[in-house]
Amino acid sequence: MSSVIILLILVIAVALIFEYINGFHDAANAIATVVSTKVLTPRKAILYAAVLEFCGAFFGTHVAKTIGSGIVNSADVIQPVILCALLGAVAWNLFTWFFGLPSSSSHALIGGLLGAAIAHNGLGVVNGYGLLTRVIIPMFASPLMGFLIGFSVMLTLLWIFAKASPERINKKFKSLQLFSAGVMAFSHGSNDAQKTMGIITLSLMTAGFIHPDASGGFPSIPLLVIVICALTMALGTASGGWKIIRTMGSKVIKLKPIHGFAAETTAASTILTCSFFGIPVSTTHIISTAIMGVGSTIRFSAVKWGLVGNIVLAWFLTIPVCAVLSAVLYKLFVG
Fold this sequence. Notes:
Order of helices and strands: HHHHHHHHHHHHH
Low-confidence stretches: none
Structural class: mainly alpha
Number of strands: 0
Radius of gyration: 20 Å
Number of domains: 1
Strand content: under 5%
Number of helices: 13
Mean pLDDT: 85
Shape: elongated
Oligomer: single chain
Largest sheet: none
């Protein structure tokens, strides 16, 4: 077996490990609120989320193509670059999971890809426009949207149901939250599963097994790659991720079904819109800030801002730390 084949198999294996970790690391995105409000038991919520994340992975491939060619020049990427990018992202995901911090798997992968690619061939490999419009601007805009829309949706619901009894509201929104949690899980699959699809397709292209499309652009994502990535993420979600679920579901703000519905609806609609336009946003950032926005309508002090500060710090560190990790790995093992 040639060294090219061996390296390709290794890259795909690590990519699927990343996808699996992404599933249990980001499981909280889809199910933390529905578990904390006791609408579903943890086991039922995880299985529910896993099925819908699998389905969401088939919602287009725009994000996969952005990861594969919109951030760094795919012509300057070789297999060791992809491998080091994945290893850096996996290391950061495991570190933040251990401490229960809901950091972004998406930004971990993007940071890893940037660091390894720059270490390989300099700053010229970076697609500056793509990085700015597809990563940097959404990195700040999407959490802000999550907070503001979550706050606005919650205020609207409170106004609509101002005269209803708390018991009636809880009963009504327990049913509605089943729907909103399902859409949230679907939206997470639609964005996060595609990132590994893009990486695996890029590795197949650099190894010469698939070729650019007729216009010389990034190729279509093979159906087998979509299925494998969707299944891997679903299995990862099914394995849980309880530390982050506890942080998202109860440590930031104590939630009731109406709050969970508002946060999930806000986050899911934002993520699905970004998936449609091929923007690889952080689902973690969006649902976290939606929860904060919703919680702020109770009273501003109800949100545990000290914990929020730790989460935000993890957000800002993710891309640069993963870039440095992957760059160091590349220099150590490739040169």
